[in-house]
Amino acid sequence: MSDATPKVGELIVTRVFDAPRDLVFRCMIQPEHLAQFWGPVGTSTPLETITVDARPGGVFETVMVNDDDGSRYPVRATYLEVLEPERLVWAEAGTGMTTTSTFHELGPTRTEIRIHQSNVPDAMRTPQARAGFLTSLDRLTAYLSRLPATAEQQRASRAVAGEGSA
Known about the structure:
Number of strands: 8
Shape: globular
Oligomer: single chain
Low-confidence stretches: none
Largest sheet: 8 strands, antiparallel
Structural class: alpha+beta
Distance between the termini: 26 Å
CATH topology: Alpha-D-Glucose-1,6-Bisphosphate, Chain A, domain 4
């Protein structure tokens, strides 16, 4: 992971995943995938609380639930741009924050995501909030590694590289 230097009110995170770009993109727009990793460690996002209409003007809604006390954290956004499998842009109605996720193919089994958030509220720029956001990406990494297609592609990639197979 690397971070560029953001301007005031912005956050920028870059993360590389050992999975094909199409799969990583689908994980960000399909509720059955989102329910497996969306939100920081200590929260869950029940499938029935996720709505995705991945088209410009469509909605992106989730409700993260605190696993300890049941507190609920709704997110409601509108897609501004959907360019599959390269780019997602949405704006959150309640905060005015805009999130742009760009998916770069680094080969058949590796993908870099660059997430740029602008108009980030102060509460979401604290070290604790940032750490929580990063754990969501950790959860995505773990989820991708458990998907059968990803595991098979990783074995094939290691075999081609001369590392043997698992």
